[in-house]
């Protein structure tokens, strides 16, 4: 599967006064190739309106939009998929309603990752790899790079490493076998989101091309 590698997670708290759509588009110009719309404060109709406008902009760049939690929003805006947490709808329910959607599932242990595969997820989010300010650490204990390495060796699905990943520690993540990362504040809160995204993509590209250059 030719799947995206640099995943941007939107967060209204991280964005602050920055405009969502323009900031995301800047990151896309830098190399972000998949975006998750996540908003915990707006109503469903408000999310549909904002996510719809975001999708229109992303469509110009050929970048898929994923909706966090809400399959209703994903259906309304014709998003590429839905991302679920451990306490959200089961993958099977979303798959029954949105049969062609990409369905991602956040996982925090190897057992949960195995269950995601069995449930029929399209991709796995795995973390937090490091501590992060955007998630409560007591709900998702840090898993670290050792478990990430173990997962890379067994996972048959695309895995996005997430949680506290910055340009300063992404090499540790790549050294653990990762080839895909999901980030939020490291791009959205950067002085120049486009430049920040480009720096991440360059690191990912080096890992990707090194891997396939060494293949027989």
Characterise this structure.
By secondary structure, the chain is an alpha/beta fold. It has a single domain, classed as TIM Barrel, CATH 3.20.20. It contains 10 helices and 8 strands. It has an 8-stranded parallel barrel, surrounded by 6 helices. The longest helix has 21 residues, at 193-213. It is globular. The relative contact order is 0.16. Mean pLDDT is 92; it is low at 212-216.
Which descriptors would you attach to this protein?
216 residues, alpha/beta, TIM Barrel, eight-stranded parallel β-barrel, 10 helices, globular
- The chain-level mean pLDDT equals 92
Q: What number of domains?
A: 1
Question: How big a fraction of the residues is strand?
Answer: 15-25%
Instruction: List the uncertain runs.
Output: 212-216
The CATH class name reads Alpha Beta
Distance N to C terminus: 19 Å
Topology readout:
Blueprint: E1 6-9, H1 12-15, H2 20-30, E2 34-37, H3 44-61, E3 65-68, H4 71-77, E4 81-84, H5 91-97, E5 102-107, H6 110-119, E6 123-126, H7 144-154, E7 159-162, H8 170-175, E8 181-183, H9 185-188, H10 193-213
Parallel strand pairs: 1-2, 1-8, 2-3, 3-4, 4-5, 5-6, 6-7, 7-8
Helix pairs in contact: 2-3, 2-10, 3-4
């Amino acid at each position: 599967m030719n799947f995206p590698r640099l995943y941007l997670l939107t967060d209204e708290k991280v964005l602050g006064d920055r405009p969502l759509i323009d900031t995301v588009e800047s990151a896309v110009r830098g190399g972000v190739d998949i975006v998750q719309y996540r908003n915990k404060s707006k109503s469903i109709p408000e999310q549909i309106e904002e996510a719809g406008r975001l999708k229109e902009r992303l469509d110009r760049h050929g970048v898929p939009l994923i909706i966090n939690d809400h399959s209703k929003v994903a259906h309304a805006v014709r998003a590429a998929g839905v991302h679920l947490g451990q306490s959200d709808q089961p993958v099977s329910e979303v798959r029954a309603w949105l049969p062609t959607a990409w369905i991602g599932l956040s996982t925090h242990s190897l057992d949960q990752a195995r269950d995601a595969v069995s449930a029929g997820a399209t991709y796995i989010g795995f973390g937090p790899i490091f501590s992060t300010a955007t998630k409560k650490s007591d709900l998702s204990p840090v898993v670290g790079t050792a478990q990430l390495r173990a997962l890379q060796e067994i996972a048959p699905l695309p895995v996005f490493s997430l949680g506290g990943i910055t340009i300063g520690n992404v090499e540790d993540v790549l050294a653990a076998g990762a080839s895909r990362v999901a980030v939020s504040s490291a791009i959205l809160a950067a002085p120049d989101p486009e430049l920040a995204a480009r720096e991440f993509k360059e690191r990912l590209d080096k890992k990707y091309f090194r891997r396939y250059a060494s293949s027989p």
